[in-house]
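Same chain as my last thread, 559 residues:
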Amino acid sequence: MKYINLLALLVLMSACSSDSNTSKNNTQNDPDAETELLASLNFPTEINEGTSGQLRATEDGITYNKEAIVPPQCYTKHEAKHNPCMACHQTHPFGSSTNYMADGVLQAEYAFSDVGVTNHWKNLFEDKTEKVGQISDQEVIDYINTDNYTPLIEQLEASSDWEGPIPKLVNLQQGADAFDDEGIAKDGSYWVAFNYKPQPSTFWPTNGSTDDVMVRLPEEFRAAAESCTNDTSAYSRDTYLANLAIMEAAIKNLDSVSLPQVDERVFCTDLNNDGHLGVIYEIDRPAFYVGQASDVAVVPMLYPEGVQFLHTVRYVGVSADGDIGVSPRMKEVRYMRKFKLFDEPDLISMYGNERQEKIDEILPKYINRGDHGLDNSFGWMILGFIENADGSMRRQSYEEHNFCMGCHTSIGSTIDQTFAFPRKVTGSEGWGYINLKGMKDAPVMGDTEGEILDYLKRVGGGDEFRENGEMLEKWFNEDGTVKEEEVVAADVYELLTPSVRRALDLNKAYMTIVADQDFIHGRDANITPVTNVYKEVDPDTAPTLPADKQRMKDIRLQW
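reply #2:
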């Protein structure tokens, strides 16, 4: 097997982990121990073939956690000084964003419903040490190098009663090898991979998962203008790349953006405003998309109707030479499709309704579209697949789907309900499969200090729970301050990847959750019980976060 470059994440969003402790033989600061560990393992030369299994979850209609949209991280004890909540909860100046959730106040206080005050994520408090100890390192290597994605796609295609979308991308289990240098899938599916910086900190590899995200625009965005070609149905790479760049400029609200080489004569639009049609490497954001999508208006900070995202959450891959990257095996396959574009007045009203429902403690409810997924009421359909106990993949249950819905519906940090694309490396350099090696710790828009450095300082740890011992040892001094010079000197790969020992142990911890099939109790790959998390929150006595510890910031990055 050709090893896959590291990638990490996304929006969308989670199935990741914090940890408490990894096993006793930590290899982080012991190269000899890591070399010995790697030498003891047998790495396959090819990806193992998996099998299909049960396609849909068995559901009894009983909901264990009616507030499953509230993730485990929301129960972190911030002790009136740590602020992991800023990653999700933000309030933007009115009119500066299409996200009007304005929930920055949740950085300061624990505002739960009567149901939500109880932390239902029981797996956080489970001691998995014994279970983890029963899984050998070789079992992990064999397991994570088995393809469970292709069998899922083949099963969906062969199923006579599957009514939903089939998120197919040939050889996606191979990671970067499934795409060309500009991120376009080699199989002709028109999925496009992009390089982005993982959202802090649930999606950092050191906390248990790697991931990738792909985007696909509808057919008319991929076809040349009718006035420019006799074949009005022809696929045009130039048109597609131009429209992808236009969408990037729209979502990030940029006046201009670079892109891979395209020829304007294919779609008959002067995108760089130089007065003639020719080969270009940069565009000015136009009022409309190009090609056969030339009648579709460009709306700042909103995707066009019909856009799709494919997000795979994976185990932490380990190569024979100790590189950390994506594994062929997937924990989850997530698919989003925007089926309706709402205008700004509608969005203002819809977000207002969301806020009022939270004030009134109305428990969340989403329209279940069966094999098509859940409707988030903001124009997006969200469908997820997760592992069966035997490692094959199945459609998630209604409650398991709810785990994804909060982050992709009603938090203030997202742009049009998404995380990853707004965090894409800007311009032409960002088209291609995710790779953290050499990536700088870019600051968020309007800042000068690296985002990861800022997060470590404000959160006091390398994960929301402040229980990632390896991150504490590597990037923090004994007095709890951050080793700023070392952090500034490191790239994102070095900052966010675990040791081989930790990677194997985190994979084992998650494998125990798969075996138990208790995702409704949490998906975090902690080995020992967490301590910096409430089991029950008393809003009357829980500390509030002082104003000087709160942080209003952008999800977009200043590359």
